[in-house]
Specification:
heterodimer, A: 305 residues, alpha/beta, Rossmann fold, five-stranded parallel sheet, two-stranded antiparallel sheet, 9 strands, globular, disordered N terminus, B: 312 residues, 2 domains, seven-stranded mixed sheet, five-stranded mixed sheet, 12 helices, 14 strands, 38% helix, 21% strand
Chain lengths: 305, 312
């Protein structure tokens, strides 16, 4: 069926995949969720929902997929990451801190005057940030320009982009999508964090761009759809780009908004979370439970060796 | 009469010269290169010209990304479509990110005369100069257009330059001293400072001649760079003449006159008169007639200056 782009689970990859690496990434994802809570505690509020839905994708990028050097954030051969949905910055700050781009104590300045981690990222204030985003619908053009420039330099570097699904209503994205395809920019991989919610409600009710895969494909992109919380699926699909030579690649990552917080998952009013003390306590308990399950899983897997 | 030259052709030739010298210079087009005097660029530098079609917002973003890799993108198109339309991209992707991109608005001011207000650009200086770190250039003759192109490419940082449409008189010798941010005193004088910019600089030059014939000593200044403004030159004119008249093919709100007033009102208040377009959509029609409608012809500038000096 022509519309079906759900990428087959890469069975051969799964067997090759080091399950320990997956476990490790799951552990890192947990730390990043804890860092997001730390940021929310510092700032008393923040765009948590879309940050939490993107944790696995961002973790996979910063801890497996991207060629980067935290000690040399401007290393010319690095891969680039553009957070088009700039309001998801909590997950980026959390990941950069965990990866060692800066001291984690900076996370405690969230919300403070002159903090290097504003509510939308600023490349001039923090190492590891590649672009100033926040106004939606800018990132894909910027990333397309980066990819084109890198290609002109015959660089092997790739450009990764994280977009929101609500963001796709901005028309400028589709300008960029058309241009990337027209110029055969195939050193770019976009993740659309399809958590299906935006401020006013379900994305399909606010301004639907479904079927997303067909839209992207009609703009000349090579499209895959995955479970955006499944590391095997993320790594298995994102490790090699382009999906098709001469075409830009996009992964529609199906995710759960506010993933990990029992009281907030799939709830529209946690797009921007002003945390009550009770909610924060519950959030800690939720992450403790994830940690407990992860330990059990680890014992199960390493015990089998 | 001075020799007339096509501003777009002049601009395009200068970009090609700059591209020959600097391999990082690239050109982005929103279906706009051929109309910007850059028709020869794609065949001369096929690997360095990128056509995007009519998507100015997208082009500004791509330019920003390209600049992160060391390229110097030049993006020229009809002025309102590279300023007002993609303003947020200009502000965030070029200004806020401080990218080394050169945006050029052509057929600016009222020079797309009969095409009407959608195609006029008489607000571009006002909006772009609010963006911190952006250099705003408005050269007033073909010689300085060419020099401005080279200066803008040599300058590291985001720039906006505007040029007109119709052939314009050569006002300067080829060896005129041109630096971004430094105005040019075309003629010294002490009764009044007449400050012009861009496409109507030549009108101010003619007006200054008419005023001299009437015995009025005019200090004629070309402010080709609106931002950063040549503070010292303008303040010395304020101190030494005590009276300033600005001439621009732009809204009086937010343009050259505003910039001069912002400076003088705080540093050395003097009497001022701003000649430009008021709070209205400009009409359509033949260019010279439009200029007359808005008081920008030399005899009208002369009359306005005389009334101003006579306190009327």
């Amino acid at each position: 069926m022509p519309g079906n782009t759900r990428f087959k689970k890469v069975e051969e990859f799964k067997t090759l995949m080091d399950s320990k690496e997956i476990l490790k990434l799951e552990g890192t994802a947990l730390k990043i969720r804890r860092n997001i809570l730390r940021l929310i505690r510092a700032g008393e509020a923040g765009h948590a929902g879309g940050a939490l839905s993107a944790v696995e994708v961002v973790t996979a990028l910063y801890f497996n997929l991207m060629k980067i050097d935290p000690g040399n954030p401007k290393w010319p051969q690095r891969d680039r990451f553009v957070l088009s949905a700039g309001h998801k910055c909590l997950v980026l700050y959390a990941a950069l801190a965990e990866r060692g781009f800066f001291d984690a104590s900076i996370l405690d300045t969230y919300g403070a005057l002159d903090s290097p981690i504003p509510g939308h990222p600023n490349m001039h204030k923090l190492p590891g940030i590649e672009s100033n985003t926040g106004a939606l619908g800018h990132g894909l053009s910027i990333a397309g320009g980066m990819a084109l420039g890198l290609r002109m330099e015959k660089s092997q570097s790739r450009v990764f982009v994280l977009m929101g699904d609500g963001e796709l209503a901005e028309g400028s994205n589709w300008e960029a999508a058309a241009a990337a395809s027209m110029h055969k920019i195939d050193n770019i991989l976009v993740f659309v964090d399809r958590n299906r919610l935006q401020i006013s409600g379900p994305t399909i009710d606010v301004m639907s761009y479904e079927p997303l895969d067909e839209r992207w494909r009609s703009f000349g992109w090579s499209v895959r759809i995955i479970d955006g919380h499944d590391f095997e699926a993320i790594l298995g699909n994102a490790r090699e780009i382009p999906f098709e030579k001469g075409k830009p690649s996009v992964i529609i990552a199906d995710t759960i908004k506010s993933k990990g917080l029992s009281f907030a998952e799939r709830k529209v009013n946690y797009h921007y979370w002003k945390a009550t003390p009770e909610e924060m306590e519950q959030a800690e308990r939720d992450l403790d439970l994830i940690e407990k399950r992860l330990k059990e899983k680890t014992e199960r897997i390493t015990g089998n060796e | 009469m001075n020799e007339l030259k096509d501003p777009r052709k002049t601009f395009g030739e200068a970009v090609i010269e700059a591209a020959e010298k600097n391999p990082n210079v690239i050109v982005l087009s929103a279906d706009s290169s051929s109309g910007s005097g850059l028709g020869a660029f794609p065949s001369l530098f096929p690997e360095r010209h990128f056509e995007f079609g009519i998507m100015e917002q997208g082009v500004i973003g791509f330019a920003s990304g390209l600049a992160t890799t060391g390229k110097i993108p030049v993006f020229a198109a009809i002025a309102p479509f590279v300023t007002a339309r993609p303003f947020e991209m200009f502000r965030n992707d070029l200004g806020y990110m401080n990218q080394n991109v050169k945006v050029v608005g052509r057929c600016a001011g009222l020079t797309y005369d009969q095409l009407g207000s959608t195609h006029h650009s008489i607000d571009d200086i006002a909006i772009i100069r609010t963006i911190p770190g952006v250099t705003v250039i408005n050269p007033g003759d073909p010689v300085t257009i060419k020099k401005a192109v080279h200066a803008m490419i040599d300058h590291v940082g985001p720039c906006y330059m505007k040029i007109g449409n119709f052939k314009m008189p050569v006002l300067y010798p080829e060896d005129v001293n041109f630096s971004l941010g430094k105005g040019i005193v075309i003629k010294d004088g002490h009764d009044v400072a007449l400050i012009g910019t861009g496409t109507v600089l030549s009108k101010a030059v003619t007006a200054a001649g008419l005023l001299e014939e009437l015995g009025i000593s005019v200090r004629l200044i070309d402010i080709h760079t609106i931002k950063p403004l040549d503070r010292e030159l303008i303040l010395s004119a304020a101190r030494e003449t005590g009276k300033i008249v600005t001439v621009e093919e732009h809204f009086t709100a937010g343009g050259l006159g505003s910039a001069v007033a912002e400076l003088c009102s705080q540093e050395h208040p003097v009497k001022m008169k701003m000649i430009g377009i008021g709070d209205r959509y400009a009409s359509n029609g033949p260019y010279e007639e439009l200029l007359r409608k808005y008081g920008l012809q030399p005899d009208q500038i002369t009359e306005t200056v005389i009334k101003f000096l006579n306190n009327k």
